[in-house]
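Lab notebook, design round three. We kept the backbone fixed and only want residue identities now. Task for the bench partner: fill in a sequence for the structure below.
Input structure tokens:
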């Protein structure tokens, strides 16, 4: 398998997963799965590049892409109230309150029972 194919496959499955989540999952579920999904995508991308091992440039590119994904995972906060993806234009500082409904975006990763 070519790296390009693996890259597209990972992106496509991520897009499909996000699409399904957007349609079916509650804002709270989306918020909980957002970070793990991004991290899995980043790791899958780097793993694919290393396994396929086409060229150093491609591995370098995949590491760069993975870092961008990780940055997204850290700086985008999904509102547990309305499901809006909140991010500042320049990545940092990470938003603390939802742009739409003003709900607090803190407590990332905490589960409430
Ligand atoms: Zn909101």
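Proposed sequence:
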């Amino acid at each position: 398998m070519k790296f390009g194919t693996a890259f597209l496959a990972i992106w496509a499955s991520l897009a499909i997963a996000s699409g399904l989540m957007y349609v079916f999952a509650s804002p709270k579920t989306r918020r909980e799965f957002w970070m793990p999904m991004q991290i899995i995508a980043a790791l899958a991308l780097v793993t694919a590049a290393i396994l396929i091992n086409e060229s150093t440039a491609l591995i370098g590119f995949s590491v760069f892409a993975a870092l961008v994904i990780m940055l997204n995972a850290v700086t985008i906060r999904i509102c547990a109230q309305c499901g809006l993806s909140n991010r500042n234009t320049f990545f940092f500082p990470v938003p603390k309150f939802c742009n739409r409904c003003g709900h607090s975006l803190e407590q990332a990763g905490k589960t409430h029972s």
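Keep this in mind before ordering anything: The chain has three helices and two strands.
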